[in-house]
Amino acid sequence: MNKKIIVGLMSLLSIAVAAQKNVIDEVIWVVGDEAILRSDVENRRLFMQQERQRFDGDPYCFIPEQIAIQKLFLTQAKIDSIYADEGQVIQYVDRWTNMTINQMGSREKMEEYFGKRLSQIKEDQKRMVRDNQVMQEMQKKIVGDIKLAPSDVRRYFSKISADSLPMIPTTVEVQIITLEPPIPLAVTDEIKARLRSFTDQINKGERTFSSLALLYSEDMASSLQGGETGFMSKIELDPAFATAAFALNDPSRISNVVESEYGFHIIQLIEKRGDRINVRHILLRPKVSDEDIKNALAKMDTLYTDIQAGKISFDDAATYVSFDKNTRNNKGLMVNQNEDVENNNYGTPKFEMQELPQGVGVVIDKMEVGEISKPFNIKNYQNKNVVAIVKLKSRINAHLANVSDDFQELKMLVEGRKRQEVLDEWIKEKQKSTFIRIADGWRECDFQYPGWIKE
């Protein structure tokens, strides 16, 4: 380690410890070449509190240790040349920012909560997301592939006492048929005309694309950034949107009006980098009238009656009538698209109740297996108003795990524990070879890994 860096960090540490209580910031830990500041801990605490994450004990012990563990992985990641995907980082932070503003009610309330301007909050979040992504990739490299035989899972299960068995939550499989109320031509013409007027204002220099996107775009995730999407590949974009966006070559030109499954757009190129592109866009969605929804409910009610009378099966109706392109080729069977890292059901037809779209979950919760719901109105994944009927295909009620019914879940549990054992050993070995210093007042903790304090 560079001795000048150590001396510099330790000087900061000694100054901070000697400073008065009204000091704005201070170095509280040093891990290798990296300092951990009091402000780092406070920022992390506010983010965890806002996201209702659980503190395992005293946050002023738990959080600094978690940051220190992260720095061990980040230091190794630099050596191994592991970096974050900046496009994914920006996308995540944009979604998080939009969701947080909606939860808190306004940008001003968000800034008041964190005690910072929005731009500073986003930079802090980008840094945390970037570091987490790199750490996860480093952990994958350290752990490698863990392959377990069925006998390993059964052996593990046989050693668990009954009161330590995991609880498997209720899961369901759901089939769905949707009908989109038709949008009158006059409504779509009005939206296209409005977008063309935006283009005219931009071309004449009366307004900027960013200001119009901020004021009028209905894509909340990008509108707060002046319509900017961040770098994305074709596969991440709606096909029609991607075709129009990648056809742009001049940042001063605005695309023609583009229709995607989300609505109508105009697009402005910012930058291309290989097979990725960063653009601004303004999205306007056609509004469905109450009368149109009422008519769609009536049509779906007729279909519901025909299914109940045996004139057509639910499977055939889902295949030939449903507007839902993601399920109609699978007889209406929904697939779990919740990408939460804790979601073991991702990519399968299994849903825990809270993973279902809100309107669907409320209806399914009261149904019996094989039952078909009456028509109801929901918003789909594209935020469009649709009318739906659903069928509860299967339900497995909450229960204690057992090998015969929950082998896959238990296998994942055992694999997770094996991975954690490998990472625990790696952390303990890294502690031995890493320079670590903790300021007075921050050492009196029951750490998960006691090796931070070297006698």
Question: What does this entry look like structurally?
Answer:
The protein has 455 residues and is of the alpha+beta class. The chain has 15 helices and 13 strands. Strands 9-4-11-10 form a four-stranded antiparallel β-sheet, with helices on both faces. Strand 10 and strand 11 form a beta hairpin. The longest helix is centred in the C-terminal third of the chain and has 31 residues, at 403-433. The chain starts with a helix and ends in a 17-residue tail after the last strand. Residues 1-23 have low confidence and may be disordered.
- Form type: globular
Briefly note the structural class of the backbone. alpha+beta
Classify the helix fraction into a percent range.
40-55%
Distance between the termini: 20 Å
Sheet-strand content, in percent, reads: 5-15%
| Strand arrangement across the biggest beta sheet | 9-4-11-10
Low-confidence stretches: 1-23
Q: Describe the biggest sheet?
A: 4 strands, antiparallel
Overall mean pLDDT stands at 87
* DSSP strand count: 13
SSE pattern, N- to C-terminal = HEEHHHHHHEEHHHEHEEEHHEHEEEHE
Q: List the total number of helices.
A: 15
Radius of gyration: 27 Å
Which key terms come to mind for this protein?
13 strands; disordered N terminus; alpha+beta; about 450 residues; four-stranded antiparallel β-sheet; globular
